[in-house]
Specification:
The protein contains 13 helices and 14 strands.
């Protein structure tokens, strides 16, 4: 029998988050409306400066969305048709999609079963004389092993573009003890401000980060039709910009990002504690080199049908999602780029076993307990 609740449980509760900071958000949006500076303007430049300061990076260039950020990065690095770019096969389609869109070749590699990220070893085995760049994805809120990846990239003269759409605010600890924000270690970091992200706007948005001033200037130009100054076009570019209304929202929410990430970790800790005795559930791995900001709380189903559990939870009003059910190399769109015989065992196991539970900044104890009891009751 389906259980009903007064308030439906959501994977992400944006409304409750908004209500807590409503006066600040509304005032910031009203300032844009009053100024009528909807494109670029002070709200956008202020947000870029504030995000750069938060990340400890020299330059932040905002753009229309996270997919555009990845495309702009590859265009700015001068990658040419036929160049190979290494990317994990267990990720959202956008990471590999932009590679194909630019007529580059996406070379898909396997990921680690523990943290779901690719490794230097998998990348190393895929490097050829056509390889020009690596795109590590910091999946679900935790960094890939960047120090090893950066060392490998330096050895082979490769660019590193970090897909940081799911891990903004996470910290990476180098072996010398120095900490850096994830997304600032490679040549360029890219992120998305899609509403459900840990730092999300109220529409679409994205950004790139870099410590290379010359590269930043080129990215800004390409994102603005390739202009060096108005009506002077040095590069073939695109039109990709963050509008001022979204910057107004993001600049307020940036002040709360660490608080938001801490709230997500608190929920994840409670889940971990509750599920540790269930042998058929594998809780998320916590890396020693990276903090985890839990963009998703993703479990692995061990020797049971996750779809049966998901349906059981849905009947109780508890949503659960699968990120991602199909390896990228099995998608029809990528057929021209991969062998029909391609098989990456870890990716395939994860696609068949992972599922994610609701996690967000406003999850109250009663909702959390209801979800936990719902999961536990399945295994009784």
């Amino acid at each position: 029998m389906k259980t009903t609740r007064n308030e439906p449980i959501q994977m992400v509760d944006l409304k409750s988050q908004y209500l807590k900071i409503q006066s600040e958000i509304d005032q910031s949006i009203q300032e844009v409306l009053t100024s009528c500076q909807f494109i670029k303007g002070p709200k956008v430049s202020n947000f870029e400066r504030n995000l750069a300061a938060y990340l400890g990076v020299k330059q932040v260039i905002s753009c229309a969305n996270g997919t555009d950020a990845l495309q702009l990065a590859m265009m700015a690095l001068g990658l040419q048709a036929g160049d190979e770019v290494i990317v994990p096969a267990f990720t959202y389609v956008a990471t590999a999609e932009v590679i194909a869109l630019l007529k580059l070749k996406p070379v898909m590699v396997d990921v680690d079963m523990e943290d779901f990220n690719t490794t230097a070893a998998y990348i190393s085995n895929a490097i050829t004389n056509k390889t020009k760049a690596i795109v590590p994805v910091h999946l679900f809120g935790q960094s890939a092993p960047m120090e090893l990846i950066l060392s490998l990239a330096k050895e082979h003269g490769l660019f590193v573009i970090e897909d940081n759409a799911q891990a903004i605010g996470a910290d990476y600890t180098l072996t010398n003890g120095h900490q850096q924000k994830v997304g600032t270690l490679g040549d360029i970091g890219c992120t998305s401000f899609f509403p459900s992200k840990n730092l999300g706007c109220y529409g679409d948005g994205g950004a790139l980060f870099t410590n290379n001033e010359k590269l930043a200037t080129k990215i800004r130009s390409i994102a603005n039709h390739g202009q060096s100054k108005r009506y002077h076009h040095q590069f073939i570019g695109v039109n990709s910009r963050l509008d001022a209304l979204q910057a107004a929202v993001l600049d307020i929410k940036l002040k709360y990002l660490d608080q938001y990430n801490a709230a997500r970790r608190k929920v994840a800790d409670r889940y971990d504690e509750a599920f540790q005795e269930i042998s058929q559930l594998k809780t998320p791995f916590r890396s020693t080199h990276s903090t985890h900001i839990f963009h998703q709380y993703t479990l692995q189903a061990i020797d049971f049908d996750r779809n049966d559990l998901i349906q059981y939870l849905q009947d109780k009003g508890i949503p659960a999602m699968i990120y991602y059910p199909i390896p990228l190399y099995e998608q029809i769109a990528f057929a021209p780029f991969v062998s029909k015989k391609m098989s990456l065992p870890n990716t395939e196991k994860l696609c068949q076993s992972v599922f994610s539970l609701p996690i967000h900044t406003e999850m109250g104890p009663s909702t959390l307990s209801y979800i936990i009891e719902g999961v536990k009751s399945y295994f009784k």
